[in-house]
Amino acid sequence: MSSNNTAPVLELKDVKVYHRARTGTLFRPNIVKAVDGVDFSVHRGETVGIVGESGCGKSTLASVLVGLQEPTAGRMLFHGKEVKARKAAVRKQFGRDVSVVFQDPSTALNSRMTIQDILVDPLQIHGIGNERTRIAKVRELLSLVGLPQSAAEVIPSQVSGGQRQRVAIARALALGPSVIVADEPTSALDVSVRAQVLNLLSDLKRELNLGMVFISHDIQTVRYVSDRICVMYFGRIVEEGPAAQVFDHPTNEYTKKLLGAAPSLLHV
Ligand SMILES: Nc1ncnc2c1ncn2[C@@H]1O[C@H](COP(=O)(O)OP(=O)(O)OP(=O)(O)O)[C@@H](O)[C@H]1O
C-alpha cells in the first residue's frame, strides 16, 4: 500500500522532456514533447504503474526517473532534495538508491560475464565489501530472486529468459535500493513465465519495502501489480489514482479506451 504520510523517495514536478524531431528545419524545428508537464511521486512500499500506448513517453519518463535523462524543464526531487547532475554526492547516493530493470535481459546483461561477476560488479563499482562478503551477497541475491546457487557459475545465455530477468532483478537489488524502476520487465518474456516474474517483483516490493515504478503498455499487467496507476497519453498523465478506482471507475475517455482494448497478454 502507499505510505503517503512519508516523504516520497522520488518526486517529479512539472517535468518536461522535449526533443528536436528529425523532420523540420534549422529555423523551424519540429519539437517532440515526449514528456509534457508531469507531476509524479513514488514512496517506499508502493507500486506505481505507468501505462499508455507506444510513443506516449513512458520510457522517457523512466529514463528521467533513473537519472539517465535530464529534463528540459521541471524538477526532480530525491528524498526531498533536488537532483543536480553535477552534485557528485547526491548522484552517488541516487545511484545506489534508484535502480532499473529493462525490458530485455538478453541485451541488459553482459553476455561474456558469469552471473556471479554480473552481480559483484555494482558492489565493486561502489566499493562495497571485500571479496568474501561480495560472494556472500551474490548467494543472498540469488536466493532472493529464486535462482539456484549454481547459476552463479554460468553466463546469461546458459539460463532461460525468465531466469535472465531474475538475474537482472538481482543486479538491481545489489546495492539495496529504495526504488526500482521496471520498464516493460515482462514484455520480452514467454507468456508462461510472465506471471512468475510479476509475482517475484510484488513479493520483493513487500519483503524489502521497495518503491516500484512499473511501466507497461498493457493495462491488465499494470493492474495486476500496482497499488496506484498513472495513465499516460501524449506525454501527459491524464488519469491517476488507486488501481481499483482507475480500473473499475475510469473517468478519462482515453483510460476507458485502453480498458476496452486488446485482452491481456498476461494470461494469469
Ligand atoms: N531522442 C529522441 N529524439 C526525438 N524524439 C524522441 C527521442 N526519444 C523519444 N522520442 C519521441 O518521444 C516520444 C515518446 O517516446 P518514448 O520512447 O518515451 O515512448 P514510450 O511510451 O516508451 O514508447 P515505446 O513503448 O514504444 O518505447 C515518441 O514520439 C518518440 O518518438
UniProtKB/TrEMBL annotation:
SMART domains hit by this protein: AAA
GO terms of molecular function: ATP binding; ATP hydrolysis activity
A biological process term (GO) from this entry: transmembrane transport
The ABC transporter domain, residue ranges: 10-259
UniProt entry keywords in alphabetical sequence: ATP-binding, Nucleotide-binding, Transport
PROSITE patterns, alphabetized: ABC_TRANSPORTER_1, ABC_TRANSPORTER_2
UniProt xrefs under Gene3D superfamilies: P-loop containing nucleotide triphosphate hydrolases (3.40.50.300)
CDD domains to which the protein is assigned, alphabetical: ABC_NikE_OppD_transporters (cd03257)
InterPro entries to which the protein is assigned, alphabetical: AAA+_ATPase (IPR003593), ABC_transp_ATP-bind (IPR050319), ABC_transporter-like_ATP-bd (IPR003439), ABC_transporter-like_CS (IPR017871), P-loop_NTPase (IPR027417)
UniProt keyword annotation of ATP-binding present: yes
Family: Belongs to the ABC transporter superfamily.
Protein name: Peptide/nickel transport system ATP-binding protein
Species the sequence originates in: Arthrobacter pigmenti
